[in-house]
Amino acid sequence: MTSIWQTAALEAETPLSRRRFIQLAALSAAGLAAGCAVNPVTGQSQLMLVSEDQEIAIDRQNSPHQFSADYGVCQDAALNRYLQQTGQRLAAQTHRPRMPYRFNCVNATYANAYAFPGGSIAATRGILLTLDNEAELASLLGHELGHVNARHTAQQMTQGTLVQALVSGLSAVAGTQGQPAGQLAGQLGMLGAGALLASYSRDNEREADALGLRYMTAAGYGADGFVSLMDKLRAMNRHNPGAIELMFATHPMSDERYQTAVAQVRGPYAAARRQPVFRERYLDHTAGLRRMRGAIEAMQKADSLMAKKRYANAAHSLQAALRKAPDDYAALAMMAKCQMALHRPAEALRYAELARQAYPQEAQARYLAGFARLKQKQYEGALADFNAYARLLPGNPNTSFFQGLSLEGMQRRSEAARAYARYLKAGGRGDRAQYAYNRLVQWGYVKK
């Protein structure tokens, strides 16, 4: 269908009459009005080209990949129930209480919490380890609920849609920040942690702070928990910036935000300072996590070393972590990546297999095992691993490329060609796309 502006372009050789200009402007305004929605927080009309159903669909498509990049949902079922209960207590106080909220701990050790637009909210083991009470946890989750309720990601996507004229579609969530080891993940054809997270503006952060404070006090938590959370994050940024780098990249921090929170707690929310912070309840529910502090801190150190490409030193830190927690999935998967970076595919495969045994339902270990087998020309085993990964976590286009490599190694050319074609159709780019295209040309499936 020809758009009104395409029609105008066809008329460009002759000047537009005033009447025709007004007609085009009116039609354009009508199109924009069709994309207006009432902001659930402010009650005001705003341009919004992403519906609530689309927010949920985007969430369901992308959040599983983010969780896997963060080494999966924590296997501590009791801890996840606790987060879910705390989160739902807050969700009942929000402007969008009917959203399908999910609250989980993920195994990553860097400090962060994040939300997807459809209500999937996660906190890493690294951030949970820094908290001292449930009021701080409620502040953390309340802030993320603020982003969902104010529809910040949908706003960013609407603005991006207007600028890019729908070129990129709605499948990718804004933001490309990666974890410290994100560069290595990219080399392996994997998503780095944070690759699918929105990067919020300072205005977004201010609004999420205000909503988070409102929600957590309405749910019965002491307002001082909000200020003490901010204090902790500022202290971490001073003393251990690598562990919190991604959080501040996606959630820009400032002294102004902190001072605003202090003023709010001392002013409008002063009465809520008398409400409980539930320190003992938090410590009881996170006792198992805190017993792993030594291992998690060793993993944080390894993450920082991997970002600096000091892989031998990182492997030493991961060995220390594994001595304390020999079955920790994240430590085993990180060690597999580290061994790949050190060009030791046999060792990488050994750790990937140990990771798979530790957490059979999580996909990343399968991918790492497949990559390590490819490096050793174990093509049949590699194909089995990549197929298993695709079943557990469909949607990563790089999987098709590595399935193609495996099939090519097995001399199954026609199947390899189909895999390469799938990869290119899914938007593959760079050296892998060039390789896949060249193979299709060489094999006669594509003519130049």
Q: How would you portray this structure in words?
A:
The structure is a single chain. The protein has 448 residues and is mainly α. It folds into 3 domains: 52-159 and 200-288, no CATH class; 294-389, Serine Threonine Protein Phosphatase 5, Tetratricopeptide repeat (Alpha Horseshoe); 396-448, no CATH class. Helices cover 63% and strands 4% of the residues. The protein is built from 23 helices and 5 strands. Strands 3-5-4 form a 3-stranded mixed β-sheet, with helices on both faces. Strands 1-2 form a two-stranded antiparallel ribbon. A hairpin with a 4-residue loop joins β4 and β5. α18 runs antiparallel to α19 and α19 (364-375) runs antiparallel to α20. The relative contact order is 0.09.
Q: Could you give the topology of this structure?
A:
Layout: H1 4-10, H2 18-34, E1 36-38, E2 45-47, H3 52-69, H4 77-91, E3 102-106, E4 113-115, E5 120-124, H5 125-128, H6 134-149, H7 152-164, H8 182-187, H9 202-218, H10 224-239, H11 241-250, H12 255-266, H13 279-285, H14 287-291, H15 293-307, H16 311-324, H17 329-341, H18 345-358, H19 364-375, H20 379-392, H21 397-409, H22 413-425, H23 430-442
Parallel strand pairs: 3-5
Antiparallel strand pairs: 1-2, 4-5
Overall tally of domains: 3
Number of strands: 5
Sequence stretches where pLDDT stays below 50 over 5 or more residues = 1-34, 161-182
Oligomer: single chain
| N- to C-terminal distance | 31 Å
The radius of gyration computed from the alpha-carbon positions, rounded to a whole number of angstroms, is 24 Å
Taking strands numbered 1, 2, ... along the chain, how are they ordered across the largest sheet? 3-5-4
Strand content: under 5%
Give, in order, the helices and strands: HHEEHHEEEHHHHHHHHHHHHHHHHHHH
Helix content: 55-70%
Overall SS class: mainly alpha
Count of helical regions: 23
Tell me the overall shape: globular
Q: Could you describe the largest sheet, including whether it forms a barrel?
A: 3 strands, mixed
How confident is the prediction overall: mean pLDDT? 85
